[in-house]
Amino acid sequence: MQKYRAVIIDDEEDSRSNTRSMLTNYCPEIEIVGEAANGPEGKLKIQELKPHVVFLDINMPGMTGFQMLEGIYDRDFCVIFLTAYSEHGINAVKAGATDYLLKPLMLSELQSAIRKVMLHYENKASSNAKPENDKNLVLINHSKGFTLVDYKDIVWLEASDNYTNLYLAGTKKIVASKTLKEFEAILPDSEFFRIHRSALINVSYVKEYSNHEGGEVILSDGTHVQVSKARIQEFAEYIRNKSVSPK
Length: 247
Fold this sequence. Notes:
2 domains; 32% strand; five-stranded parallel β-sheet; CATH 2.40.50.1020; five-stranded antiparallel β-sheet; Rossmann fold; single chain; alpha/beta; 31% helix
C-alpha cells in the first residue's frame, strides 16, 4: 500500500491530537511525518518534509491558514482544511483545497477526503505517463475527462491557482486540473520557457519582444505576455542560443 506523507498544522494541541489519532487508527494510507502549531512553523515543515497532503487549520493567531498558503510558491501538495467555522467554505474552494472538513471531525468525511487525495495522485501519475506511440502527446485532465494534445500546438500556459489555462493554436483554450509547475516538469525545456511565475510559453510562437512595461513577449496569435524582471536576462540568453546566427 502506498503511503501518503502528511503534515498537521493547527494551533490547538487537542485538535492536533484528535486528527493524529483518527489518521493513525483509521487511515492506514496516511503517514504523519510532522506537525506544527502555527503558520510560519508550518511553512518550514512543508519545505523540509515535502508532504503529499497538509491538514490545515484556518483560524490560527498571527497567520491564518489562507495567509500561510499565499506565501507558498508553486504548491505541489493537497490541502484539507480543518475548521470549526462553516463560513470559510467558499474561500477554501478558491484556495484550491482538496476538501474542507468541519470540527469535530467525522470519520466518514475524513476518509472521503483522503480518497480524494489518493485519486489526485493516481490521476497525476497517469497524466505523466506519455503515450508510447507518440512522444509529442500530453494527456490533459480536465473537468469533463481528458484531452490528448500535441505539445507543439500549445502556444502558452497560464497559472490559475491549482489549475492551468492552456491556449492552443487556433484560439482553443483548455482548463486543466494540473498546476503550471507540473506542466513545466513534463514539457520539454528546449521548447518551453517560464517567463513569469504565472506564464509558460512555447518559444516557437514568439513573434516579438517589447520593453513595454518592463518587458513582454508578443506571440504569433497577438497575445501579450509579461516577462518577469527577474527572468528578462535569462530569457534573452535562452532566445539568443536558439536563434540562428548568420555566418
